[in-house]
């Protein structure tokens, strides 16, 4: 790296237990890869940390040499912030330990762990961490710092609502604890404010007992009845107990074994669900969904939690091109449904999907000023997940997402920071209320006054 003294790099190598990689080194290209194939950035240096001291060394080095710095957790964020051009990438992907204290129901999780790592270890004891998302190769780090929701968060809360404490390396290279008792301002900020305030090397989460199997499944609805079904769904799911989570995905049907061959590739409305309770009760709550409008097929039963949590992974493997546009939705009015059907029916590629999770429940009962996650009361999220393979299709695919997003803006209120693309400061602000934003700016000023951590949905000091 031309602008950094070779001796300084050699010192960094000597100090770190993990690898320090430069362009051309073995492993450099694999380490800079992230989930979204749109980004092919080449950092000047990659520090593959294996422990907290490596993270502290890397932060100190970045600051001393005034390097643009990115932090890679699971590398999943669609905005591509985990990797930078020319600067220093602090790669946490070797830090994936999960330790579960089954008696205390507490999981200590390294900052680079993936959701699948957490399920693997917590399920030994029939436990789970609520708010972990729905794809097992997503990183705990980025997901948690933005909020974190998943199949059981209606019952047990967002990831941040279950966070007890975090070990954070701040911009001055020091390690601090953030919890209700220690540095409570930092603890408030990292619960929704993203990676703006430091690098979390370890999270401590409360676990919940869910057993090792859940009643869960998929119902695949015919797209020709989409309006009628979505009208039913928007009202029905809001009557369900928090133990039941039923979402909607508008997409082309994947080649699921329970669907007739001629349905594969057709537009459908998929209704995946998870029920935390006894199977018979779950069946009776699902029956109205089955009966609402005609289905192409369905599959449901008691499924192993770890299997269910990884069940959709193959639909969103690494490497494809992705562009997300998203917002929280105040309600699925008939006009909003018309837009979803019109744009949904005109998807520019067979890999796109419109993901509409229902969010209400335990997260909405947490007082809104308790964390930096601002929009707890909106019932639905609308995530326009544009996904395609060929760079030649970039413009048409992104234009579809932007137009769809603009058409549904009248029904929106705020956005989930973790679902933002690179959309500028104005959009980041839309993830927060004004009061929350002002408080986040003050915390940023205190913990990162020079904005070292700016490869993220940035809050400027
Ligand atoms: C296929 C897919 C499915 C998803 N499903 C869900 C879901 O069900 N629920 C949900 O809530 N979200 C979901 N998300 C969104 C997800 O929460 C974000 O993409 C999140 O940023 C991923 O975190 P990461 O660590 O993998 O990403 P990265 O790209 O590595 O990091 C994202 C941001 O967080 C920062 N960061 C990461 N780790 C740390 C750390 N330890 N300390 C400080 N900063 C850190 C990075 O610097 C970056 O700015 C999904 C995303 C994808 C791609």
SSE map:
Blueprint: H1 6-15, E1 19-22, H2 28-32, E2 45-48, H3 52-64, E3 69-72, E4 88-91, E5 98-101, E6 106-110, H4 115-122, E7 127-128, H5 140-146, H6 153-156, E8 163-169, E9 175-179, H7 184-190, E10 199-206, E11 208-209, E12 213-222, H8 226-236, E13 244-246, E14 248-252, E15 267-275, H9 279-292, E16 295-304, H10 305-310, E17 321-329, H11 334-344, E18 353-356, H12 362-365, E19 380-388, H13 394-408, H14 425-429, H15 434-447
Parallel strand pairs: 2-4, 3-4
Antiparallel strand pairs: 1-2, 5-6, 6-10, 7-11, 8-9, 8-10, 12-15, 12-16, 13-15, 14-15, 14-18, 17-19, 18-19
The site of flavin-adenine dinucleotide has 35 residues, from strand 3, helix 5 and strand 10.
Explain the overall architecture:
The protein is of the alpha+beta class and 461 residues long. The protein folds into three domains: 6-91, 2-Layer Sandwich (Uridine Diphospho-n-acetylenolpyruvylglucosamine Reductase, domain 2), CATH 3.30.43; 98-210, Uridine Diphospho-n-acetylenolpyruvylglucosamine Reductase, domain 3 (2-Layer Sandwich), CATH 3.30.465.10; 213-419, Vanillyl-alcohol Oxidase, Chain A, domain 3, CATH 3.40.462.20. The protein contains 15 helices and 19 strands. The protein has helices at 6-15, 28-32, 52-64, 115-122, 140-146, 153-156, 184-190, 226-236, 279-292, 305-310, 334-344, 362-365, 394-408, 425-429, 434-447; strands at 19-22, 45-48, 69-72, 88-91, 98-101, 106-110, 127-128, 163-169, 175-179, 199-206, 208-209, 213-222, 244-246, 248-252, 267-275, 295-304, 321-329, 353-356, 380-388. The strands form four sheets. Strands 12, 13, 14, 15, 16, 17, 18 and 19 form an eight-stranded antiparallel β-sheet that branches. A five-stranded antiparallel β-sheet has the order 5-6-10-8-9. Helix 11 (334-344) runs antiparallel to helix 13 (394-408). The longest helix has 15 residues, at 394-408. The model has no long low-confidence stretch (mean pLDDT 97). It binds flavin-adenine dinucleotide (FAD). The site of flavin-adenine dinucleotide (FAD) has 35 residues, from strand 3, helix 5 and strand 10.
């Amino acid at each position: 790296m031309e602008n950094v003294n070779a001796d300084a790099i050699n010192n960094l190598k000597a100090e770190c237990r993990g690898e320090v990689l430069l362009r051309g080194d073995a492993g450099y290209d694999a380490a800079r890869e992230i989930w979204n194939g749109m980004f092919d950035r080449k950092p000047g240096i990659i520090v593959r940390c294996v422990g907290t001291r490596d993270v502290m060394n890397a932060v100190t080095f970045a600051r001393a040499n005034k390097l643009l710095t990115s932090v890679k957790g699971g590398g999943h964020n669609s905005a591509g912030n985990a990797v930078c051009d020319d600067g220093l990438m602090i790669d946490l992907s070797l830090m994936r330990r999960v330790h579960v204290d089954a008696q205390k129901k507490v999981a200590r999780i390294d900052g680079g762990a993936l959701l699948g790592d957490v399920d693997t270890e917590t399920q030994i004891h029939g436990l789970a961490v609520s708010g972990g998302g729905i794809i097992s190769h997503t990183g705990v780090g980025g997901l948690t710092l933005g909020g974190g929701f998943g199949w059981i968060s209606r019952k047990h809360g967002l990831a941040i609502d279950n966070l007890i404490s975090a070990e954070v390396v701040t911009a001055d290279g020091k390690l601090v604890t953030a919890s209700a008792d220690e540095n409570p301002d930092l603890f408030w900020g990292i619960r929704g404010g993203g990676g703006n305030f430091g690098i979390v090397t370890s999270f401590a989460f409360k676990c919940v007992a869910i057993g090792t199997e859940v009643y869960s499944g998929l119902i695949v609805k015919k797209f020709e009845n989409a309006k009628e079904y979505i009208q039913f769904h928007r009202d029905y799911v809001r009557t369900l107990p928090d133990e039941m989570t039923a979402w909607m995905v508008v997409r082309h049907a994947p080649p699921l074994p329970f669907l007739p061959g001629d349905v594969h590739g057709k537009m459908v409305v998929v209704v995946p669900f998870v029920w935390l309770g006894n199977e018979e009760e779950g069946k009776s709550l699902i029956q109205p969904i089955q009966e609402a409008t005609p289905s192409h097929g369905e599959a449901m039963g008691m499924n192993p939690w770890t299997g269910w949590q990884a069940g959709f992974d193959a639909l969103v493997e690494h490497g494809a091109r992705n562009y997300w546009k998203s917002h929280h939705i105040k309600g699925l009015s008939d006009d909003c449904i018309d837009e979803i059907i019109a744009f949904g029916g005109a998807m520019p590629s067979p890999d796109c999907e419109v993901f509409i999770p229902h969010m209400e429940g335990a997260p909405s009962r947490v007082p809104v000023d308790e964390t930096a996650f601002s929009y707890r009361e909106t019932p639905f999220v609308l995530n326009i997940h544009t996904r395609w393979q060929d760079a030649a299709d970039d413009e048409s695919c992104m234009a579809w997402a932007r137009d769809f997003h603009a058409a549904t803006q009248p029904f929106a209120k705020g956005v989930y920071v973790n679902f933002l693309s690179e959309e500028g400061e104005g959009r980041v602000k839309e993830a927060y209320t004004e009061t929350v934003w002002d408080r986040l700016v003050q915390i940023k000023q205190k913990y990162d006054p020079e904005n070292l951590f700016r490869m993220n949905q940035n809050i400027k000091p």
